[in-house]
Automatic annotation (TrEMBL):
Its cofactor is Zn(2+). Residues 191-435 form the Peptidase M14 domain. The lineage of its organism: Eukaryota, Sar, Alveolata, Ciliophora, Intramacronucleata. This is Peptidase M14 domain-containing protein. One of its GO terms (molecular function) is zinc ion binding. It comes from Paramecium sonneborni. GO terms for biological process: proteolysis. Pfam families: Pepdidase_M14_N, Peptidase_M14. It comes from the Eukaryota. The active site is at E409 (proton donor/acceptor). Belongs to the peptidase M14 family. InterPro entries: Cytosolic_carboxypeptidase (IPR050821), Pepdidase_M14_N (IPR040626), Peptidase_M14 (IPR000834).
Amino acid sequence: MKKLLKTNKDLGNQYLDFTQLFEKKLKQPTINNDSKKELIEQYRQRNFKHEPQPFYESSEIIVYGSFENSNIMAVQQEGNELNILLNGDTNTNGCTQWFYFGILVKQPQQLTFRILNNRRGKSLLKEYNHIRVYDNNKWNCETTKELYYYRTNINHPFYHSQDSSIANLQQNFPLHTLQFNYNFTQNKNIVYFALTMPYTVSNLYHLVYHSSLKHKVLCSTPLGLPIFKLKTKHKTSEVVIILARQHPSESVGSHICEEIIKLLDSGHQVQNKYRCVVFPMLNPDGVFLGNSRCNFNGVDLNRKWDMPNQTTEPEIYNVVKHIKKYKVAFLIDLHGHSKKLNQFLYGCATQIKHISDYMRVKQFSRLLQQGSDLFSYNNCSFSITPDRVSTARVAMWKKFQIANSMTIETSLYGGQKKPFEKEEFNLLAQNILNALFQYNEYQSDPHLYDAQEINQAIKLIKKDGIDDKESGSDSDAEQDIIVTRNPRLKVTSRRDSTPLMVKSKPKQQSETPIQQPTLFFKNEQTYSFKKIPSYQMKRKVSRMNSFQSQIIDEPLSAQLPTIYNIPTKQYKGTLDLIQALQVKSLSRQQ
């Protein structure tokens, strides 16, 4: 890996030179010597005159890449086919997902594009084949033809490098190819291609300085760009914190945040209930550089909220320090999702002692569902897994006891095979503000009292309030980490680099007892079990994780919890149970 890391003399950061991995597949690619130092100075002076700079020109096309938020590293043309490599995030081992570049054709024609080094394996690009194209003065979608997303074949023996260490890396470094065709109908203007509809730092400047909300610069980023804070003028006792754009490739978060700010500008009634404090772009460095996930220092900001470092992630350090000043009722972190459709949220609801606690936490998501068909309640999750404890929603929930601390995810690909446009972003923003205005922690939505929700609450209470449902978050922190695997191919030496097929030996099953934590057992003891084949299992099996299953002695019919002092008896149906719960809940409030 160290052989592939190079230093950018312009900004002083390290980057991964993907051309060495593709030296046999792409024999002589043209490298984009991306220079954005001048553009940073223009940002500081609020003077945006930078024009896209070409870095490749042939008799048929011109390729543009040096502009804000752009990402293209190298290109090789083969007739009407264009092979493209993306830049990895700065100071990382090659995190790639976001792309943004321009093409000017000299004659109308059809071109085939192949983006070869995408790191994200699971994506809805496979099912919903549309990317964003700026042509005829507007951003379009579904104008590309024959879009495919598949595993890049540099791990094939034919493409292995003569260097054994690089050949080894090719086997253990999974990359994916995005291939599509586009028919150019005009040759006067540049046509831009992007993963989603971009939202740049200059868009942010325009929004902030045209908003009627009070704004200030909270701090500066490592590149010297500002972290803006906007707040409403109405002073109320409780505050709603809204965060956006921790991850640069998730531009949908910025589009929704912009619509929220515009609604607050127009005097939305939620300002009479809460004071709104908005941080519209937490990672302007990453957005400016065209990163996919990290800031300039190569840090995933949404994994540093528990113990932020002032040197490497000053953006988060200063925001957390500022949040301490407020009595926060809601913390809403806006993100984008590439594996699911529509909009949904991840909340925090692990410690559930009463059914009323469960309903109170779920109320906001139910209000969002009632307000818009674009919100999917079934995709919501309220679990907290160990790899999410340092995210904004979990760290702020724990540190400042913010009960309604959540991540609102919006699909990069829209809903029902239709991507979200400005109209949908406005509807989603309205729905969030309307749900905030309607929320009342002392009232529970009666629709929550159905059989499925009650059973879920009972399970949580029996597990001491722990929800082990997997969140399925799109925020995988390991996108830029190389995981060592058992190689299928082996290079013997640098001189003789012919790969040889080797067979892996079958793993022997261990008889060592597996220890399980006390959390899942009633009698506060640790039990040991040996692995038992599935066909021999006759008792209830609880799946502890994705690798192993253990037998747990647990009664199949759970008794109704006594928190409402309801006598345990056989009710005729779900309606009787709901009525009894509601009566007891009202009596307790009285």
